[in-house]
């Protein structure tokens, strides 16, 4: 098949969940199918972004675009203008007449079998052509994230803002999902929610995967009271998770285990996160790193205290593949077909999370058993080739169904 893949960012460096999922699946599909990758590209994108595109596509079509920097004058101006818009800000900021023109020109010039819109953001620039099937690939239920921001926010001004964004996102997400021939989700839970809430006729799910050769036990020295968290720290749910953990959970653990530490690994930590680390010597904020594996390998346990989020968390599979015991909230492990008490420990309330962490840190046998089972589970079920095959099976079925309808 000839696929036109639409996205709003280039994939290198492959340094966050959405990029990892797309890169790994396209890498397995590239060569089997002819993939044209059309994306927004900013002036700060490194040469690597373009030089390595052949790893996941046959053709790369970049469209120039400049994202407003967070907390800049333009950023606040755009937020103010968004108050009167029907679109959520997270979508409106990606509106690009140039990208819309390039997509239309490309669709007219080449006989693509299928258009894949990778998440909601590029959909703002795609005008659906009834003659060509198109699939929306949803990495999460985006309105869920905004709803959870609203529910967990204490500041009344921010709470009102999150409520407005949640409502706008829900309306946009529902309408956008219904405009495509099919929607592909990353978990059964997301599939069922979108089917029921958005009244979709055709929605499928594909599994989340992990590179089990890259993420594997390293055999290094483990620090007995070290906890670790990894993730892009410029994503609000991750920042919220660390603030919540350091304020509500870490002090209680420290009262029982004075040597406990937390290392937070991920790009672009905010000033607030940096100030937390500066005022608390138990907390280390690394910022972006070239390789997260040494940080995970040296930890005794991996924590995922997420209260906000959607889709599936690749970070959990990566930690499991490295044989690390994981303690997560229900939201953190949402959508993953793994078993509490066997593959990881689930804890939602602060006191339950404290109990789970101290239990693992004080029981080496339990920690080893859960870590070993975690590695066994992901190796047996969750390689990326399974996700890529499932995705392509759905795409091929959609193209075939459209062909039969046209022939009839």
Morphology: globular
The strand count comes to: 13
- How would a crystallographer describe the biggest sheet? 7 strands, parallel
What is the assigned CATH homologous superfamily of the largest domain? Glycogen Phosphorylase B
Second CATH tier, the architecture of the largest domain:
3-Layer(aba) Sandwich
Strand content: 5-15%
Estimate nothing, just give the exact number of structural domains.
2
CATH top level of the largest domain? Alpha Beta
Overall pLDDT metric: 93
Measured distance between first and last alpha carbons: 21 Å
Topology as a string of helices (H) and strands (E):
EHEHEHHHEHEHHEHEEHEHEHEHEEHHH
Q: Helical proportion?
A: 40-55%
Q: Compute the CA-based radius of gyration.
A: 22 Å
Summarize the structure.
The chain is an alpha/beta fold.
Provide the descriptors you would attach to this structure in a database record.
408 residues; alpha/beta; Rossmann fold; 2 domains; 7-stranded parallel sheet; 16 helices
Description:
By secondary structure, this protein is α/β, with parallel strands linked by helices. Helices cover 47% and strands 15% of the residues. It contains 16 helices and 13 strands. Strands 3-2-1-4-5-6-7 form a seven-stranded parallel sheet, sandwiched between helices. Strands 10-9-8-11-12-13 form a six-stranded parallel sheet, sandwiched between helices. Strand 8 (226-230), helix 10 and strand 9 form a beta-alpha-beta unit. The protein is globular, with a radius of gyration of 22 Å. The mean pLDDT is 93.
């Amino acid at each position: 098949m000839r696929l036109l893949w639409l996205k709003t960012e280039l994939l290198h460096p492959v340094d966050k969940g959405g990029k990892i999922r797309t890169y790994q699946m396209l890498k397995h599909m590239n060569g089997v199918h002819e993939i044209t990758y059309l994306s927004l590209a900013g002036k700060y994108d490194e040469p690597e972004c373009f030089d390595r595109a052949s790893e996941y596509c046959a053709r790369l079509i970049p469209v120039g675009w400049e994202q407003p920097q967070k907390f800049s004058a333009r950023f606040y101006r755009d937020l103010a203008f968004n108050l009167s818009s029907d679109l959520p800000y997270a979508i409106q900021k990606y509106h690009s007449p140039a990208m819309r023109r390039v997509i239309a020109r490309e669709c007219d010039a080449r006989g693509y079998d299928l258009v894949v819109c990778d998440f909601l953001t590029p959909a703002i620039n795609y005008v659906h052509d009834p003659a060509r099937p198109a699939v929306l690939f949803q990495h999460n239920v985006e309105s869920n994230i905004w709803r959870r921001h609203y529910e967990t926010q204490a500041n009344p001004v921010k709470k009102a803002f999150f409520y407005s964004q949640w409502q706008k996102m829900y309306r946009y997400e529902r309408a956008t999902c219904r405009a495509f021939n099919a929607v592909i989700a990353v978990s059964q839970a997301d599939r069922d929610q979108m089917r029921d809430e958005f009244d979709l006729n055709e929605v499928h799910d594909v599994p989340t995967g992990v590179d089990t050769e890259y993420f594997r036990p390293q055999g290094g020295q483990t620090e007995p009271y070290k906890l670790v968290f990894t993730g892009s720290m410029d994503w609000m749910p991750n920042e919220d998770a660390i603030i919540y953990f350091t304020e509500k959970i870490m002090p209680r653990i420290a009262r029982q285990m004075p040597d406990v530490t937390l290392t937070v690994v991920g790009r672009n930590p905010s000033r607030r996160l940096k100030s937390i680390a500066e005022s608390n010597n138990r907390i280390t904020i690394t910022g972006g790193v070239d390789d997260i594996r040494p940080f995970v390998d040296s930890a005794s346990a991996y924590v995922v205290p997420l209260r906000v989020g959607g889709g599936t968390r690749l970070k959990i599979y990566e930690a499991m593949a490295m044989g690390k015991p994981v303690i997560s909230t229900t939201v953190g492990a949402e959508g993953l077909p793994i078993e509490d008490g066997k593959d990881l420990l689930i804890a939602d309330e602060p006191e339950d999370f404290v109990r789970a962490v101290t239990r693992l840190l004080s029981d080496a046998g339990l920690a080893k058993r859960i870590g070993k089972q975690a590695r066994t589970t992901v190796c047996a079920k969750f390689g990326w080739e399974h996700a890529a095959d499932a995705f392509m099976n759905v795409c091929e079925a959609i193209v075939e169904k459209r062909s039969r309808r046209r022939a009839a």
